[in-house]
Design goal:
13% strand; 533 residues; 14 helices; single chain; rod-shaped; 8-stranded mixed beta sheet; alpha/beta
Length: 533
Amino acid sequence: MTDAAPAPWPTDGPSSGTSRAVTLTDLLRVPLHRLRLVAAVALVGLLLALGYVLLVPAALSASAVVAVRPVVTDAFTPSGAGADRAVNMNVESGIATGTEVVQRLADSAGGDPRDIRDALEVEVPTGGQILRFTYQAGDAHRAVQSANMAAEAYLNVRRTMYEQQRAEMLRSYDASITKVVAQQVALQKRANTAKDTAAGDALVAELAGINNQLTQLNAARTEIAAVDVNPGWVTQTAEKALVTSAGHRPLYLVAGLLGGALVGVVLAYLWESTDRRVRSVADGREASGLPLLGTVRRPAFRGSPRAVDADVRYVAMAVAERVRQPARVALVTAREDATALTAGLAVALAVDGREVFVADDSGRIERLRAIVLADRGRLPIDPSRPLVPKPRPATGSTPAAGAATDGTAARRPSPHPPGARPSTDPDATLTLPRVASARPENSRVVTPDEVVVGVGTVRFGTWRQGADHGLVLFNAPPAESDERGVAVARQGGAVVVVERDRTRQSDLRRLVERLRAAGVTPLGFVLTRNGRA
């Protein structure tokens, strides 16, 4: 190989002090590369939700609506400006779900008060004086009965509380009235027995004040006794026709799927934090500190590998720029197999006329040969094949004068071809006609272990067999389990093959450290896609 001397390549990577901004693509890359884990956890969440929907019986809910009214002395008096704040609905909601209501419901319908408390739900619409009692049960009859009973129990409890308050107030008024009446009777007796006119007038005036006080007390008692203590009305009773399923069952499936996907994404990030893979060129540069020789993409369609072959040829040009014959280049990997890339590089280097020897000591010679033959068939132009075929000479024409060898005159054809007539001389020499070779003039003798690629050749064998060749590509085994790739790289150079989404960054760092510790300066790294070089 008569290539130019290798020139130092810049690492063209970000400086150590510059931090790369994390984009939305970086955040989405981890779940996409761990898609199997995310899909598996999402499927588990969906199965759990489906099991809950199928195994747990559906709960039915019935609702009853109660309109809460404030207790007023005159129900026919128009309400003031703060009528909507006359009742504290938070207090009413607490009473509706209180122990007394739940206990009455448990005594009437039967059951554990704790289960009843869990099944009963009271809603208070914002800005309204309405309580909506919702009860969940396994059958419609129990749900309807319990919802109506909860509404009635609340009204009864609230009515009892108002009646107790009214009774206490009436009892207080009765005690005051009894005391004032006793004072009235005593003054009446003193006024009847008074002999002095002035004293009698004073007693009469005092008696008039007591009479007024008694009148006010009786009027206030009458108003308290006339208060309507009704706390409200049931404006909508629960009915079987209005019973609905508690919650939407299909939403459980959606929630299970989304919840599982969310848990899967979290697990993907946790797994990625402990098992970092090379996802991009930047990751490869950061982990290895080596320059990039090229990226080999996997084609979008399996039947059109031209893009991959072009990428391999670009990598071959980069490798040829950095080495000169005799060259020993080892393609080393951490845990992956670089057989496809080795064969592709051999074809790309041999097509320009180089004699490439592909060495392998791991029993992959036949696979390398098959890949070389397949890649040779996809070459865009075969330089070994002439574009314009040679014209055939016309029948009976004489060969051109230029066809004669230098310094030798052209021989005239004999009128008597050899063997046309027998010779009478017994010592005459028999002349045999020359047998033309079936091999064309521009063809080469191909040995069994040699493949012609373009104007060059690719040969196969072990590392020892390639000792006398000018350009040797060694298909090294994974360095994590075999050190022969690093040992061969000490005699020449090394190309680190990094497989995207598969090579661990820790393995790549360890491989580069081993190469440098062994005295090898790697040429660079090649980023490939999994499944294809």
